Amino acid sequence: MDTAKQPSRVLVVGAGTMGHSIAQVFAQAGITVDLADTNAGVLETAVRRIAANLSTVKEAEHSSGAEPTTSIENVLRFVKPTTDLSSVAAEAEFIFEAVYESLEAKQAVFDLLEEHTPKEAVIASNTSVLDLFEETKLSHPERLLCAHWFAPPHIVPLVEVVGGPETSAKAIDRTVSLLESVGKRPVVMRKFVPGFIANRIMMAMADAAEELIDSGACTPAEIDFAIKTSVGVRLGVVGIFQSLDFNGLDLIAGDRLPEELPSYLRSKVEVGDLGVKTGRGFHEYKSPAEALSSRDLAYLAVLHALETSTDFAPIH
Ligand SMILES: NC(=O)c1ccc[n+]([C@@H]2O[C@H](COP(=O)([O-])OP(=O)(O)OC[C@H]3O[C@@H](n4cnc5c(N)ncnc54)[C@H](O)[C@@H]3O)[C@@H](O)[C@H]2O)c1
Predict the structure, then answer these.
(1) What CATH topology corresponds to 9-188?
(2) Residues in Cβ contact with 125 at an 8 Å cutoff, skipping those fewer than 6 apart
(3) CA of 197 to the centre of ligand 1 (A)
(4) Residue 160 in 3-state DSSP?
C-alpha cells in the first residue's frame, strides 16, 4: 500500500447531504478542504451543518467522558467554501465528487476537472448506482474511481472503493491510504456493482419488508422494532457470513443436494468446515467456547449502547 504523506488539500464537489459531511471528515483530520457547489445558499447551509454535526460530536464526547477533540472553530478553519470550482481545482490532489446522481451533472464536473486539475489528481465519485466507467468519458480514466460513502460520512466508518477497467492500482492505493489516514474503514471491491455492498443488502431487506407488509403480517413500526431488537444487535458484531458460522454451515445447507448449494457454501460443507464448531467456516476459530464468549460480550456491549441511546424507540 502507498503510504505517501497526506495531501495538504482535498477538493469536495457538491456540498449537499453527502458533500458537506465528507468535507467535515477531512477538515477534522486537519486537511484543508475546498468545498465547491454551484449554489451559494447550499454552501452557507453546508458550513452551518458541519458546525451542528461537530456540536453533536462534542455532546457525545462530553456525555461519554471521552477526551475532547479540537474545537469547532479549529475544524471550520479547514473548510473553504467556493462557488468557483475552476479556481480551486488546480490545487487538488484528491477530488471527492458528490453532485447530483445524474450522468450529465457528473460528466460536466469531470470535464471541468480534467481541464483544471493536475492529471495525477484522483477523481473519486460518490455515485450510488451509475456505472461511470462505462457511461462517462475522461481523457485520463486511470484516475477515476468510486469512493462510495455511507451516510452520514462523518460518522459511518465504511467507504466502498472500486475502480473501473482502466483505473490504476496506484489511484486505488492512494485513495485507500488517504481514507485510512482520516479514520475511515475502506473496502476495495473487485468490480463495480450498482448499490455497492451495504446498500444492496439494505435493498434486499427493504424488499423482504415490503413483502411482509403486503402480506398483512405486520406494520412498518413492528418491522423496525423487530429488526432493532435482533438483527440490529447481531449484524454489527458478526455481519452475515460469520453469523452463518455461528449457526453451523451444515444447518444452513439443510437437506439441499450439494449441486443445489451456492459454491461458496458447498466448498465449505464438502470439506467439513462447518463454522465455529469445527474451528473453521468463513472465518477461523481457536476455540468454540472462546468465540461464543467473545461474541456474547460484544452483543451485550451493543445491546447496552442501543438500550441507553434509544431503548429501541423511534428517533424523534
Ligand atoms: N444522500 C445519500 O444518502 C447518499 C449516500 C451515498 C451516496 N450518495 C450519492 O452522493 C451524491 C450526492 O448526493 P446528495 O444526497 O449529497 O445530493 P444533494 O442533492 O444533497 O447535493 C448535491 C449537490 O451538488 C451540487 N451540484 C450540482 N451540480 C454541481 C456542479 N456542477 N458543481 C458543483 N456542485 C454541483 C448541488 O447544488 C447540490 O448542492 C449522489 O451521487 C448520490 O447518489 C448519496
Answers:
(1) Rossmann fold (3.40.50)
(2) 97, 106, 132, 144, 145, 146, 147
(3) 20
(4) strand
Instruction: Give the mean model confidence (pLDDT) for residues 72-101.
Output: 97
Say if residue 303's pLDDT is above 90: yes
Cβ(175)–Cβ(145) below 8 Å: yes
To which H or E segment does residue 159 belong? strand 158-163
Q: Give me the CATH topology for the region 218-309.
A: N-(1-d-carboxylethyl)-l-norvaline Dehydrogenase; domain 2 (1.10.1040)
CA of 51 to the centre of ligand 1 (A): 19
* Closest atom of ligand 1 to CA, residue 127: 41
pTM (predicted TM-score)? 0.95
In the block, residue with C-alpha cell 467473545? 294
pLDDT above 80: residue 1: no
Beta carbon of 36 within 6 Å of any ligand 1 atom: yes
Domain boundaries, the chain: 9-188, 218-309
Inform me whether the pLDDT recorded for 164 exceeds 80: yes
Task: Give the N- to C-terminal CA distance of the chain in Å, as an integer.
Answer: 43
Averaged pLDDT, 197-219: 98
What cell does 38 get?
454551484
Q: Is the pLDDT of residue 118 over 70?
A: yes
Query: Residue 218 contacts by C-beta under 8 Å, 6 or more apart in sequence?
Result: 212, 226
